[in-house]
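Weekly sync notes, structure subgroup
Attendees: PM, AL, DS (notes)

Item 1: joint prediction request from the bench team. They want all three components modeled as one assembly rather than separately. Inputs as received:
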Amino acid sequence: MPDISADQVRHLADLARIDLSDAELTSLTAELAQIVESVAKVSEVATPDVPATSHPIPMTNVFREDVEVPGLTVEQALSGAPDREGDFFRVPPILGEEA
Amino acid sequence: MAKDALMDYDKALELFEPVLGFEVHVELNTTTKMFCGCANEFGSGANTNTCPTCLGLPGGLPQVNHKAIESSIRIGLALGCDIAESSRFARKQYFYPDTSKNFQTSQYDDPIAHDGQVTVELEDGRQVTVLIERAHMEEDAGKLTHAGATGRIQGADYSLVDYNRGGVPLVEIVTRLIEGTEADAPEVGRAYVAHIRELVKALGVSNARMEEGNVRCDANISLRPRGSGLLGTRTETKNVNSLRSVERAVRYEIQRQAAILADGGTITQETRHWHEDTGTTSAGRPKSDADDYRYFPEPDLVPVAPSREWVEELRSTLPEPPAERRTRLRSAWGFTALEMQDVVNADLLDVVEATVAAGAPPAAARKWWTGEIARVANARGVAATTLASPAHVSELVALVESGDLTDRLARQVLEGVIDGEGSPSQVVETRGLKVVSDDGALIAAIDTALAAQPDVLAKIRDGKVQAAGAVIGAVMKAMKGQADAARVRELVLERAAQ
Amino acid sequence: MGDLTRLTASALAEKLASGEVSSVQATKAHLDRIAAVDPDVHAFLHVASDRALETAAGVDARRAAGEKLGPLAGVPIAIKDVLCTYDMPSTSGSKILDGWVPPYDATVVRKLREADLVPLGKTNMDEFAMGSSTEHSAFGPTHNPWDLERIPGGSGGGSAAAVASFEAPLALGSDTGGSIRQPAAVTGSVGVKPTYGGVSRYGAIALASSLDQVGPVSRSVLDAALLHDVIAGHDPLDSTSLTEQWPSMTDAARQGLKDDALKGVRVGVVKEISGRGDGFQPGVKQRFDETVQLLTAAGAEIVEVSAPSFEYAVAAYYLILPAEASSNLARFDSVRFGLRVTPQSGPVTSERVMAATRDAGFGLEVKRRIILGTYALSAGYYDAYYGSAQKVRTLIQRDFAAAFDKADVLISPAAPTTAFKLGEKIDDPLAMYLNDVTTIPANLAGVPGLALPVGLAPEDGLPVGVQIMAPARADARLYTVGAALERLLEAGWGHPLLSRAPALAETEMFASEEGAV
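Output from the run, pasted for the record:
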C-alpha cells in the first residue's frame, strides 16, 4: 500500500476545497495512513471475477415523465443565501476561468 | 495579450498533418430539466426555475427525465451508434459556483450510445466520414454574470449566479480522431458541426440555435510532422459557437501550433478560449492533476437499460437522414450544389419542399424563398418561414407562370401577403394589381406617349431602338406598372414604324 | 391521567382515539419533560413548543369534529436533524448549517404531518451522521439517560435518548451503518433500519446515498411498526425508492404477540458477528446467548450460518461511505445556503471563501472522512479502493443470500459493547468505527434490521440490544419476530427494560419558549 504524505493530503484537501491548518494536516496525514492500511484489506477478496455492486437493491429504468412540476419560488430559493443581489446569488470574484 | 505568431496556412500544411476531434454539446428541448420537474426554458427571470434538486439543496435527489432518455437514444441512433444495453450516470466532481452540487451528473464508463459514424458533405460535394466515439447524457450548469468594469471574469468585483439553466439536459457527442483532412480541416470541422446541428434539428430534439447555445462546440486540434506516426500534443478550444467560428478556430490553431513547432517549441496541453471578435484563441487552464474529476457511479440513480424493443421503436421514429434527404431532393429538383447549399444554409429546405409539393416548380420556389422573402425576413429580423406559407408562394408562382403577374407585380403581391392581406389572388383583387393584357389600352397609352415625345419617335425611326426606353417607361408609369414591359416594347416599335 | 410520557405510542394513541386524553395534553406533557430533563440529556437541538401545541390543538379540533384520523394522530414525535423541515432548522449536527431552515419538507416529514403526528423538535446527532456517539455533533454531545456520563450511541443518539428518557414516544432516525440500531442497543430502545428503498430519502441530508435509510425509533416493537407504516412507501422523488405495496408492519407486529409466533421460525446465528470475536463485551455475549436460548425455548429453530465476507464489511464500508459522503458534502460551499466564512488574510475569491468555509464549518471527523473519500475516488486509487469495496459488497450480498437460504431471520448482537464513556474513543477513529461491526453488513446489502433491548450487561448494568435481520423486502418478519421476542423478555422481567432506567433529575423549568435548547 502506498504511503500517504502530507503533500498528498494537501492535494486531497485542495480537491475537496478544505483549507486545512498545518496541525490538521499533520494529524490527518497520520490518521489517514492508519485508516487506509486497515481498509486496504478489501483488495484481498476483490478478485476480477467478482462483479461490483453499487446499488444494494438492483433496479433499472426509473424515469419521471417530462411534465413540469412547481418548484421553489425565487424567495424560497434565495432564503438561505449567505449573500444575494436582486434575484441572484452573489459570490466573491472567481479566480478560475469560465468552464 | 501577446499576439500569437502564425505560420502561413499553406506552409503549415506542407510541414504538418492536422488531427482533429470535436466535442459537441447539444441542449435538448425537453419541457423540464434532466433530473427534476423544473421548466427548461430560456430567458426567464433569475432563479425562477429551481427546486431543491437543481439548486443542490441538502436532501435534494435526482429523477431522470424519460423524454431526455428518448431524445438521447434517438440522437445515438441517428449517429449510427450502438445503444448500450445498460448505461449509468456518474458524478464528475469539481468545485465551481455555477455547479450547484459541485459535481455534474454525467456519464463516464457506460454512455448511452457509442461507436457510430456520420458522413459529412463539403461545399464541393465531397464526403468525409467522421467516427463517433460516444454520445452521453449530462446536465448543464447555471449561468454566471461577472460584475465589474470589464464584465468578464478577470478583474470582476463579484459574480452573480442564476441556476435556471442548471440541470438542463445535454447530450455530449464525442468524435474519434479525425485524420487525413489535410487542408480541408477547417471546412471539415464546420461541416461536421453543421451536420450535427442539422441532425438534431431534424430529430426535433433540440432547438439547435447555436447563437442561444443550444449547440456548443469544443475543438481539439493537434499537428503532427508530416510522415511521423506520432500524435502531437492537442489543445482544446472551448465554446466555438458558430459554424464560421469553428472553421476559423481550426485554421487559427493550425497556424499557431505550426509556428510554435517549426520554431522548435512545444505545444502546451491546455484549454484555449476562442475570441469571436479578434478571431484568435488564447491560453486557458493547463491540463493538470487538478483535473482529477473522481468520477464514480451516481448512487442516487439506477442504471438505464433500454430494451431492444424500445430502441427499435425509437429507431422507427427517425426522420430521413438530412444528408440523404438533401441528395435526394437536389437530384429531384435539379439544383446545383451551390443552390442547394443556399437553401440549406438559410434553413429553408422544409418550406421549399412544401412549396414544391404545393405545385410550384422547384427553381421558382427556391428563387422566391431565398430571394425576396429572405430579404424581407432579414430586414425585419424574423425567420422567413413566419412571413409566408408554402401554399401562398406556390400560388404566387402560378400567377407569374400564367402571365397574370409580372415579377415586379408579384413582388408587390408578396408584400401584401406578408402584410397579412390574404392570399396572392386576394391581394391581386384588393390592390388591383393584375397585368393589363388588353393591347387596345396599351396602344392608346403608347400613342399618347409617342405624341408627347416627337424627338424620341424620330430617333426610333432613325433606327436608334434603345431610345424606345423612354417611351416604355412613360407607358409603364401610365399603366401603374401593371403591364408586361416586353409586350409594351413590342407595341412601341410596332407603332413607331407606322 | 397518569404520566403521559411513560406510555408507549400505541397506548397513547388509544387514549387519544377514545378521547381520554387530548393531543394538547400529551404534547404539553412531553414538552414539560423535555424542559425538565433535556438540559442534562441534550437530545434536542431545537424544540418547537408553540408550533407543536398549535398542531396538537388542530388535531384535537378535527377529532372533536368527528373527523376520522390515522392511528398515530396527535402522538408527539421527535425528528432527527438530518431530515429537512420547512418550519424548523435542519442542521444535520453541523455548524455549516447552523440555523438553516430548508424551504421544503423531507418526504417522511410530509408523511408524518399528513398522518397528524405532532413534531416536537429536532434531535441531536453526530455531524452529518458520521459517528457512533453523538460526540461529533457541532452542538455538543447527547448523554445516555442510563448514565449521563456515557454516550447514547450514534449517529442518532438524540432520537434514541429522546425516546429512552421519555421526552418523546417516537422519533425518526436515519441509519447508514447502524445509526438507528446501535443507539437503540445502548439506550435500551427499539430502532429499525428498513429495507433500502423502503422509505424515501428525499429531503434526508445525504451521508452515503447507497447506504442511507430513514427508519423508526421507539420504546416498543409495535410502536416502531406503527411509525414504519406511516413513513414507508414509494416516492417518485427518490429514484431508488421501491415501488411495491408493503404489508402492514403493525399487523406483522401484532402477529408476533400471539402465542406460538416463534414456532418453527428458523433463526440464523451469524458465526462471524455472534459475539465470539474480539471486541465483544462478555455481558453482551451473555445476554445474546440467553436470547438465543429463549428463542429456542419458544420453538424457534436455531441454525448457525456463516458469512465469511462480513470480516471485510467494516473495511468496505469505510471506503464506500467516505467516497459517497465526500461527494454528497461538496454542495456545502457557502453559495446557496449555510455558513460563509471569509479568509482572514489574502485575496477574497470564491475559491478561498469556499475552502475557508469548509474548514471552519466542518468538524474534524467530517474532514477526515471527506479526505479519505477523496483519496478512495482519486485517479489511480479508484480500482484498489472504491472498486474493491463494491466487490466486497457483492460478496456480502452473496453471504446474506446463502444465509437466508437456511434461515428466515438472522440474529446478532446490535452492538459489540454497552454504552462507553463520553470521550473514551473520541481520539481513536478506528476504535469508533468498530462500534458498527454488526450493523454495517445490513446496510451494505440493503437488508432490513431491527434492534431491541434484551437485558442489562451484568458487569455494568447497561442495556444490551440484539439485532434481527431479514431478507430485503421482508421487513414484516422483523416485526413479527421482534414483537414475539420482546413479549417473551418482558414477560420474564415483568416490565419493559426502560422502566429500570434511573430516574433523571428534573430541572424546574418549563418549555414555554420556542427555540434551541
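Discussion: The first helix of chain B runs from residue 9 to 15.
Action: AL to compare against the crosslinking data before next sync.
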